[in-house]
Amino acid sequence: MLWLRQLGLLKLVRRSIAVTVGVTALSIGAYSQCARGVVAVHGRVEKLAADAGDVNVKVILKTPKGDFSKTVGLTDGQFSVDVPFNTLKSWSALSGHRCSNVPKSVDVAVVASDRMLAHKVLDFKDSFETHDSVAYQLKHELVLDAER
What are the tens digits of pLDDT across the range 94-109? Predict the structure, then answer.
């Protein structure tokens, strides 16, 4: 530290650390200002073969800011999953937080042993309704046909 002081660099090092901490705090604050959204997907799988084995349903939310996914197992041919996603679309010092990131589509896949048994892509605007300000649910029951 003494050599930094002698060279007059101690203030520069301290300022660099302060700027780094400040930028980190701002970016963490940007994410925390927007509520987490959640999409509830409930449905059933029909015509599932008895020897299908361990069957899972993977739901992928496709948003402009990235994909968010969750995988669940089937129980008596039924599934229910809540997939959280980040609503932060952008942030700027002038306009603040824009918390309007919502999915464009939802991919639902029924998978057994890395083999796809059924797949459906749902348009978000057509297939989901607002349940709460940041919670969405299907408008109609989702039924996937696993027969192939």
Answer: 666 678 889 999 999 9
Q: Is-contact 57 45, C-beta < 8 A?
A: yes
pLDDT, tens digit, 9 for 90 and up, residues 104-138: 999 999 999 888 999 999 999 999 999 888 899 99
If you write DSSP's letter for every residue of 50-71 in order, what string do you get?
TT--SEEEEEEEEETTEEEEEE
53 phi and psi angles, rounded to 5 deg: 80, -145
Tokens found for residue 3: 């050599």
Question: Tokens 């297939």, residue?
Answer: 127
Query: Which residues lie below 8 Å from residue 128, measured CB to CB, with a gap of 6+?
Result: 39, 103, 106, 122, 136, 137, 138, 139
pTM of the model: 0.74
